[in-house]
Amino acid sequence: MTTDTVADDPYCRRFAGRVAVVPGSSANPSIGRSCATRLGREGASVVINGRDPSTLSATERDLRALGIEAVAVAGSMDDGATPARLVEAAIAHFGRIDHLVNTIGGAHFAGSFEQMDKAGLIDTVALNTWPTLALIQAALAGGLADGGGSVVNISSGSPHKTTSSMVAYAAAKAALNALTRTIAADLGPRGVRVNAVSPGLTKTSGTRAIWENDEGRDAGAKLVLGRLTAADDIAAAAAFLLSDDARQITGVLLDVDGGNHLSGGWSPFRSA
């Protein structure tokens, strides 16, 4: 492909003939939906997922209206049968599986460590790790490693921070980061790359209350780059890590947060 062609087409077809599975991709806006859209615009066939059938069906229609081959599989990723159903749909409709974007996460418990009980911690860690692990296992059984697949897990910048109310969530994402690195080491010899993207505060349905009134201008102004992260920003990074452009990258945790991870700490010293 020539440089001129790349310049003319912002969605280069890096994923033509490939099949991607993206759970948690029905809400609008959401990281999952943006990832499914980006991969589809670059040529992938996508299997999407969400818990609400009507919202998921609307997303499927929207993707198909863009010319994207999409199949929807409704269900919670907490259901032990759902990961296998997603993989089965990929194979049944498209004949293969090449890429995963694991977006499932959240906080069953929000509060300080003094308020937290065992269930609050364990459930939060499980939500942010087990659906990811279960889908990778199911995809491997379905042939993910046959053609040199790739995986991106959506983590968080929270493990960089010491926010009291997010202690359970930060611990859960730290566990996901450890899984990402270890699985990357285990699967590398089989030709499968595994990386993670760590967003900061991002404009999604889940954070709407923070950015809706001013489209995120106030929250974005506090970041080094001066703009609040959009779900499409995360999708662009995920697409890069999934693509052959990143064929020598595995086990990496990529911060996509407008520079939030660069926030300085306290110092006793002052400039002259």
Walk me through the topology.
Blueprint: H1 3-8, E1 19-22, H2 31-41, E2 45-50, H3 53-65, E3 70-74, H4 82-94, E4 99-102, H5 118-141, E5 150-154, H6 167-187, E6 193-199, E7 202-203, H7 208-211, H8 217-221, E8 229-230, H9 231-242, E9 253-256
Parallel strand pairs: 1-2, 1-4, 2-3, 4-5, 5-6, 6-9, 7-8
Helix pairs in contact: 2-9, 4-5, 5-6
Task: Provide structural commentary.
It is a single chain. 40% of the residues lie in helices and 14% in strands. The N terminus is likely disordered. The radius of gyration is 19 Å and the shape is globular. The strands form two sheets. A seven-stranded parallel sheet has the order 3-2-1-4-5-6-9, with helices on both faces. Helix 2 packs across helix 9. The chain has nine helices and nine strands. The chain is α/β, with parallel strands linked by helices.
- What share of the residues lie within helices? 40-55%
Please outline the major beta sheet.
7 strands, parallel
Number of helices: 9
Strand content: 5-15%
> Radius of gyration, Cα only, in angstroms?
19 Å
User: End-to-end distance, in Å?
Assistant: 54 Å
Structural class call reads alpha/beta
Shape: globular
Q: Using DSSP, what is the number of strands?
A: 9
Strand order of the largest sheet: 3-2-1-4-5-6-9
The averaged pLDDT comes out at 93
- Low-confidence sequence ranges: 1-7
Order of helix and strand elements from N to C terminus: HEHEHEHEHEHEEHHEHE
